[in-house]
């Protein structure tokens, strides 16, 4: 069953497209990764799943409920952490959880205890949050996200600040939730290696665009590259002018080997070339190349697009 469905989510801030036609799904029992470099649009997407911001273009449903039109029903079915867990530092971990529980219907004390055990916080849960390490805060944050038994769990870079053991424990916990309880998990990260160990499927986002999807099977990996995105090399008499124009479109572009390289949807290219010609730029050649997912992965994990190509 589809627990999360995002269709055509688009968001612009001051004419810059932060999200461009983002569509994805998370099914029951599935752990789905949302992989992308800093500034790709992960948190912006997740905030909208959690109903924290208005949606101006596109649609998000949680368990079939529209997060705008059926806000309350949608929110009853989703729990999550956006950026960092939002905890009251002067209260204990347990008091925080009880406070969050009080905001939902049907949460009993026994369930709170179960969740505390699940995130391995029993020893410290009655201490004040200000005495917690980052990893402990993350655990309480996850407990908080689970408090009302949501069917969909959304975690924004939850491994930030966790040590390797903490990461492994989180992975085991998420797998347990997915496989035993059928929870759907949507989890963002900028580390491919981490995602591959944890996820059944990974969406890759770059510059607000989903550029690929990877399904991880036990024995073989299946990679789908979104067909319409290519890397173009333009040979021209005026690289600066081309770059200036492309930057004005917020395109992912750079100068390399004497040409201007731009990553673009294929159907947008004819117009771009027309506009450049109209601006008196001479174009000698346009070369099209498929971006491979591997390249995207490498560029994400090294954090430098220019070095590897
Ligand atoms: N309120 C805002 N005003 C202007 N720009 C914004 C605003 N919020 C987000 N952005 C821009 O939107 C883009 C996406 O940001 P977002 O926080 O979603 O990225 P991210 O993928 O979560 O990155 P990170 O890995 O660093 O957390 C960035 O370019 C960011 O600068
Ligand atoms: Mg973020």
Structure commentary:
- There is one protein chain.
- With 309 residues, this protein is α/β, with parallel strands linked by helices.
- It has 2 domains: 224 residues, Rossmann fold; 80 residues, 2-Layer Sandwich (Alpha-Beta Plaits), CATH 3.30.70.980.
- The chain is built from 11 helices and 15 strands.
- It has a 7-stranded mixed β-sheet with strand order 6-7-8-3-9-10-11, with helices on both faces.
- A hairpin with a 2-residue loop joins strand 4 and strand 5.
- Helix 3 runs parallel beside helix 5.
- The radius of gyration is 22 Å and the shape is elongated.
- The two termini are 40 Å apart.
- Adenosine-5'-triphosphate (ATP) binds next to helix 1.
- Magnesium ion binds next to helix 1.
What are the main properties of this structure?
34% helix; Alpha-Beta Plaits; Rossmann fold; elongated; 7-stranded mixed beta sheet; 4-stranded antiparallel beta sheet; 309 residues; binds adenosine-5'-triphosphate; binds magnesium ion; 2 domains
DSSP, total strands: 15
Annotated CATH homologous superfamily of the largest domain:
P-loop containing nucleotide triphosphate hydrolases
CATH third-level topology of the largest domain: Rossmann fold
Oligomer: single chain
Query: Helix share of residues?
Result: 25-40%
Rg, alpha carbons: 22 Å
- Hetero ligands: adenosine-5'-triphosphate, magnesium ion
| Beta-strand share of residues | 25-35%
Which strand order does the major sheet show?
Answer: 6-7-8-3-9-10-11
Based on the coordinates given, report the CATH architecture of the largest domain. Answer: 3-Layer(aba) Sandwich
Taking the sheet with the most strands, its summary is: 7 strands, mixed
């Amino acid at each position: 069953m589809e627990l999360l469905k995002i269709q055509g989510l688009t968001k612009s801030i001051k004419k810059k497209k932060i999200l461009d036609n983002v569509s994805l799904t998370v099914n029951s029992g599935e752990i789905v990764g949302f992989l992308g470099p800093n500034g790709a649009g992960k948190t912006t997407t997740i905030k909208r799943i959690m109903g924290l911001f208005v949606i101006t273009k596109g649609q998000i449903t949680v368990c079939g409920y529209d997060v705008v039109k059926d806000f309350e029903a949608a929110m009853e079915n989703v729990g999550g952490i956006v950026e960092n867990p939002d905890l009251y530092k002067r209260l204990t971990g347990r008091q925080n959880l009880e406070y969050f529980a009080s905001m939902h219907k049907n949460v009993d004390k026994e369930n709170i205890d179960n969740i505390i055990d699940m995130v391995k916080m029993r020893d410290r849960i009655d201490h004040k949050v200000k005495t917690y390490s980052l990893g402990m805060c993350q655990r309480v944050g996850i407990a908080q996200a689970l408090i009302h038994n949501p069917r969909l769990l959304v975690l924004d870079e939850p491994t930030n600040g966790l040590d390797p053991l903490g990461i492994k424990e989180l992975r085991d916990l998420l797998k347990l939730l997915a496989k035993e309880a059928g929870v759907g998990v949507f989890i963002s990260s900028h580390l491919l290696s981490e995602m591959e160990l944890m996820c059944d499927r990974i969406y890759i986002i770059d510059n607000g665009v989903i550029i690929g999807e990877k399904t991880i099977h036990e024995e073989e990996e299946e990679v789908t590259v979104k067909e319409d995105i290519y890397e173009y090399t333009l040979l021209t008499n005026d690289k600066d002018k081309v770059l200036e124009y492309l930057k004005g479109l917020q395109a992912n572009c750079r100068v390399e080997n004497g040409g201007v390289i731009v990553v673009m949807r294929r159907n947008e290219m004819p117009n771009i070339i027309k506009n450049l010609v109209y601006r008196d730029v001479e174009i000698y050649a346009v070369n099209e190349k498929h971006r491979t997912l591997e390249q995207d992965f490498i560029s994400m994990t090294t954090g430098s697009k220019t070095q590897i190509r």
